[in-house]
Amino acid sequence: MPVPDQRDPALTREVLTRWLDGRLPGATVEHLETPSSSGFSAETLIFRAGGADYVAKVAPTGHQIFPEPRFAEQYRVLRELRARGLKVPEVFWYEPDPSLLGAPFFVMAACPGLAPSDMPPYHQAGWVTEISSAERAALWDNGLRAMAEIHAQPTEGLEYVDQTAYGPTGLVQRLDYYEHYLHWSYEGKVPLAERALEWLRANRPEEQRTPSLLWGDSRIGNILFVDGEISAILDWEMVTLGQPEEDLAWYLYLDRHHYTAVELPPLEGFPTREQTVERYEELLGRPMENLRYYEVLSGLKFAVVMARIGQLFINYELVPPDDPFPHTNTATALLATVLEEL
Description:
- By secondary structure, this protein is α+β, with helices and mostly antiparallel strands.
- The protein folds into 2 domains: 2-109, Phosphorylase Kinase, domain 1 (2-Layer Sandwich); 127-341, Alpha-Beta Complex (Aminoglycoside 3'-phosphotransferase, Chain: A, domain 2), CATH 3.90.1200.10.
- It is 40% helix and 15% strand.
- Strands 2-4-5-7-6 form a 5-stranded antiparallel β-sheet, with helices on both faces. The protein has a two-stranded antiparallel sheet with strand order 1-3.
- The longest helix has 25 residues, at 291-315.
- It comes from Actinocorallia aurantiaca.
- Pfam families: APH.
């Protein structure tokens, strides 16, 4: 979902070359890609210097998706998880000075591989449609195993990802955060999101288990694959602490969205919801609890994110101010279906 490109490639290359002096002595930025449009949230710059390929992630400013970008936290999480042996990109430097690229940024190694596409959804087009059903099944399972490895991580040393400003760890915090996010995201109303929030508050279960590290944006579209194997786990903007069911629900919900949004059945090879839950229980070593609740929570979260994207479309004059997109879109359509299933 693009935003207008406002960056001068020549100037950016010059700034990065000066900045690299002292970090990579004598290196110059030999090649720089500044896409004609970039996604909402963090901006991505791809460059080559000193014979190696790098990616600079620039913190969002006017086009930010989340109320608090938590940008420095992402850098810290990547460094910590990389040190623990997880397949996240290697990160090298963090620059807090916004005067260089207009916002803080960090630089990490470019990773090989392809991620399943969101636009168009991977159930509809792209390389995932071209591989065998057995390869798709392996892709899905590799994603589950990566998520289980994240959930198995000790949380000591990662306590800073917990958003305690919104309440105690877990569902109380999550509901307060998304209520705040909903009111921040869009100037109008999102009735289905309000309805989901009301249901979630009325039916909130007690979370008895010790909180785990959550990836947050847990889905195969945030994984780079090489020959079916994971080369990198990406996008940690939603990292937090909570119950693994929350990540699994998001993993299932976003996949369901990606085929229902285009009115197609899931591609052959992707397991059913029931098969996925059974497999994850095997990986985690315990039953999944209250998963339907977390799927409604996923619906709320996705509707709020899409409301914010719709507001940004309005802000950038990509759609008129009265466009229904912020409150009537494929995310709210699926949320309506999920609420009807309760």
